Amino acid sequence: MQSIFSNKKIVVGVTGSIAAFKVAGWVSSLAKEGAEVSVVMTESACRFVAPLTYAALSGNPVLTNMFAAEEAHAISHIQLGQEADLVLIAPATANTIAKLAHGLADDLLTTSVLAADCPVLVAPAMNSRMLLNPATQRNLEMLRELGHGIIEPESGKMACKTEGPGRLPEWDNVRQQLLSSLAKQDLAGEKILITAGPTREALDPARFLSNRSSGKMGYELAKIARRRGAEVLLVSGPTSLPTPYGVKRKDIETAKEMYQVVMDSARDCSVIIKAAAVCDFRPETTASDKVKKDDAEFVLQLKQTLDILKQLGQEKEQHKYILVGFAAESCDHHKAGEKKLKQKNLDLIAINDISGKDTGFATDTNQVTLLDSRGYTELPFTSKEQTADLILDRIVTILEGKRV
Asked: Which of 133, 149, 182 is at the close of a domain?
């Protein structure tokens, strides 16, 4: 299962900040995902972390001096910038940010950025007062105007013992921003609503009916859709999963709550993906107090919950969105998928076998069959992240067909 980083040439520019030690882990992660990482360090950066550390983690020599590199016939600053798929400057000090904003080129890193013909991402890391200084803020705005991406710093306790904004973010968020810079932006301009996770229907204040859904498939779809340029609203049932970077999330608990949020938001969306496992039934009555064991009845009266997908299908033509459903089945998969595709008026349905130990609920892998008007497409057994990418590929094809 290849990462988007595989075989990508990534230049990591390290400047003089104590946060340089944190970037060593980022370099290691990129190399493990198959990226060809070239580290460029400023003279000040070498005082915080030895170049040998980055060389060991990246598997490549570290470049520290423009003229030494030329004399050794190593890759030049022009080649570095023009052959790279991505340049990441992290940590980026106030001094380096100022030089980049004003086009100064007095070392290997800044000259490489000036020559770069690829996305450049800058991750500021510094004391809060330095970051919030109007000069630094103006320089960051100039970098945005130049087309560089800014990885916004987080707030917290600094090395200088003060608290505030200026810390480097965690790798997971940074990774998503790097992947967005490398990924095709074929969903730019699309507003996508995705539901994920289970719903819960209360029996009493202590108990509820629910299902085994972890929300992983829906969260991967939200993450990848955002990565590919979409504006994403994630309507999530109860789950412990973190909100994907750049995704707007609304939390719900019951099927009724999900119905209300989805129907209120649907008219503004171009694509709706119903990946949530909504409870089909709820208790006919809910006890206001916890039911004691001795008082419990052994027959539970149930009634159907609102059918969100069916209602969306009925309103699809009116609001002109693409509607995608999921069928989590344990038998007769194709038959169940065909029935649901027609009954719910879907453009696409993803059918998966929940009886498999590696393809059901709460797994990191999946194997999905896609069904639309063109017939069946069997997707490979792979990660849910890659499955999400493949599902979105099909959605892009449907969108392109609608535009013709």
From this structure: 182
Find, among 113, 40, 46, 105, the residue nearest to 81 by Cα: 113
Number of domains in the chain: 2
246-269 as b/e: b if 16+ CB within 10 A:
bbebbebbbbebbbebbeeebeeb
Residue 306 is classified by DSSP as P
Q: Which amino acid is at 133?
A: N
For residue 219, give the 3-state DSSP assignment. helix
pLDDT tens digits, residue range 176-211?
A: 999 999 999 999 999 999 999 999 999 999 999 999
Considering the domain architecture, whether residues 148 and 209 belong to the same structural domain is answered as no
Cα–Cα distance for residue pair 300/207, rounded to 1 Å: 13
For residue 18, count CB atoms less than 10 angstroms from its CB and return exposed for 0-12, middle for 13-18, buried for 19 or more: middle
Same domain, 300 and 336: yes
Q: Tell me which residue of 62, 149, 53, 133 sits closest to 95, measured CA to CA.
A: 133
Set 46, 118, 160, 331: catalytic member: 160
Give rounded-to-5 percent helix, strand, coil for the chain.
40, 25, 40
Per-residue confidence (pLDDT) for residue 73, from 0 to 100: 47
| pTM of the predicted model over 0.85 | yes
Alpha helix ranges (H) inside 33-145: 51-58, 66-71, 77-83, 94-101, 108-115, 128-132, 134-145
Residues 171 and 195 reside in one and the same domain: no
Task: Note down the domain range covering 375.
Answer: 191-403
The CATH number that applies at residue 92 is: 3.40.50.1950
Q: 230 and 161 in one domain?
A: no
In a domain? residue 2: no
- Quick one: CA dihedral 178, 184, 187, 193, positive or negative? negative
CA 28, CA 21: separation in Å to the nearest integer? 12
- Spatial distance between the Cα atoms of 232 and 220, rounded to a whole number of angstroms: 12
- pLDDT of 374: 87
Is-catalytic flag, 160?
yes
Q: How far is CA 267 from the centre of its chain?
A: 24
